[in-house]
């Protein structure tokens, strides 16, 4: 391979954030990092404990100047605490409190833990405005429905993360909050005019850019007035025209996971890689599915696109310069003490809301109504069990519930029903209503968004299903 060929391959590889299975780095990842790979994205399956993550990131960084990223939003979306649930409430809870200094402190604490583990880019915060209650993918990941509230808390999150030398990645540009489709599965559409988009969806991104956000993540969302049928990730009008031009952003643009169906089922993984680079992206998060063969194929396709004139080499050089500037900002790895100041539980306690008066707990039966997790959240544990060790916990899908049997089991006992986003699941609503008809003294705990609530019954809203949210709810229940 000639010098120029090697240089072009390094430029192509430098745009990729790869993933891998397991808790140690495969040899192919280390070799690719030596050959210029942009970096990695870690997932829950890469995490055993903090010390192991630190060893992993040290090995990765030893192989090359790596961007080491993951999704650590707090709340429902966590990678460091994937196996136990996050000690920090998510954005919905922080938005409900509406204390920007608290939000900054929570994100500063999250960043300190990431930095101590060797992670230098957090794919957070979500700046989406959750204007669609039936949104299947954002929900409690959003600070709320009001653009100004979301903007000020997005800024606080950015400042908190970056104060600990962890780059923020504000997502999902130009906004995923007004959708009813999960972009992991198809291409959602935000069918609004540019005036609405500028006043609503773009407000938090504009504020984050002014606050110095180091990176912005694209959304696989089509905005017909701007992108036509294509998702924003593949749209020059969205990434170069709007983000770079109108909003004046010159930081690193990171794509959402390229293995999501919005990309793979439309233009394919390699085709999408070329199109998003041409549109203005700098780092491509490939997601958990692509393996080394896929990575090599993507690199080869990028090289071919440059040689055929479909992708200017200058575009790769521009991306390389932006990523190099980001790495310079990271600086040398530092030992950062994780903040153990209880700010997560403090925030969850401030967010939790109680309507009505739960009675004293007597041999409580807790029914946790199971709901399928979103792909973004994954199989993170949730529920109140850890905080009610003396209770009988029954978890079930609504379809499997025997209402009469449950009522018989709950005779002469306190009955607590825990739901998650009941407003999105009519079967959950039906089960709760049937139980309440016979037991109006039931306490309902909502661990998603409190959109639907029964007309009567004591009701606790947590604004999220993180471990901290559950503890705060149980404290109210047992006070």
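^ Assign residues to that structure.
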């Amino acid at each position: 391979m000639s010098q120029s060929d090697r240089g072009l391959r390094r430029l192509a590889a430098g745009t990729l954030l790869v993933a891998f299975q397991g808790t140690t780095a495969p040899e192919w990842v280390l070799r690719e990092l030596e050959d210029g790979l942009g970096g990695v994205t870690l997932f829950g399956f890469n995490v055993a404990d903090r010390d192991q993550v630190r060893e992993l990131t040290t090995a990765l960084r030893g192989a090359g100047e790596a961007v080491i990223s993951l999704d650590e939003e707090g709340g429902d979306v966590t990678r460091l605490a994937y196996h136990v649930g996050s000690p920090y409430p998510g954005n919905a809870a922080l938005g409900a409190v509406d204390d920007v200094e608290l939000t900054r402190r929570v994100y500063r604490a999250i960043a300190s833990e990431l930095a101590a583990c060797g992670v230098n880019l957090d794919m957070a915060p979500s700046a989406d405005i959750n204007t669609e209650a039936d949104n299947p993918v954002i929900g409690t990941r959003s600070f709320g429905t009001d653009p100004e509230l979301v903007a000020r808390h997005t800024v606080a999150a950015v400042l908190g993360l970056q104060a600990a030398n962890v780059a923020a990645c504000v997502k999902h540009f130009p906004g995923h909050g007004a959708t009813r489709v999960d972009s992991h599965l198809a291409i959602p559409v935000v069918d609004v005019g540019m005036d609405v988009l500028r006043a609503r969806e773009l407000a938090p991104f504009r504020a984050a850019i002014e606050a110095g956000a180091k990176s912005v993540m694209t959304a696989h969302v089509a905005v017909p007035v701007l992108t036509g049928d294509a998702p924003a990730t593949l749209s020059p009008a969205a990434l170069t025209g709007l983000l770079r031009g109108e909003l004046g952003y010159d930081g690193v643009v990171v794509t959402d996971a390229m293995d999501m169906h919005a990309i793979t089922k439309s233009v394919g993984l390699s085709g999408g890689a070329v199109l998003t680079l041409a549109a203005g992206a700098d780092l491509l998060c490939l997601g958990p599915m692509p393996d080394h063969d896929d990575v090599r194929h993507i690199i080869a396709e990028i090289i071919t696109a440059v040689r055929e004139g479909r992708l200017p080499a200058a575009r790769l050089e521009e991306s390389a310069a932006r990523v190099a500037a980001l790495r310079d900002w990271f600086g040398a790895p530092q030992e950062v003490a994780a903040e153990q100041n209880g700010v997560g539980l403090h925030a969850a306690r401030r967010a939790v809301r109680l309507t009505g008066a739960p009675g004293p707990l007597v041999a409580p039966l807790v029914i946790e109504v199971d709901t399928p997790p979103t792909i973004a959240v994954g199989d993170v544990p949730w529920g109140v069990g850890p905080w009610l060790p003396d209770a009988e916990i029954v978890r079930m899908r609504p379809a499997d519930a025997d209402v009469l049997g449950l009522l018989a089991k709950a005779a002469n006992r306190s009955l607590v029903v825990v739901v998650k986003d009941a407003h999105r699941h009519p079967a959950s609503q039906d089960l709760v209503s049937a139980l309440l008809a016979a037991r109006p003294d039931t306490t309902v705990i909502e661990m998603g968004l409190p959109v639907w609530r029964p007309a009567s019954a004591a009701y606790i809203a947590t604004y999220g299903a993180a471990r901290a949210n559950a503890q705060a709810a149980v404290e109210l229940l047992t006070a």
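The chain has a mean pLDDT of 93.
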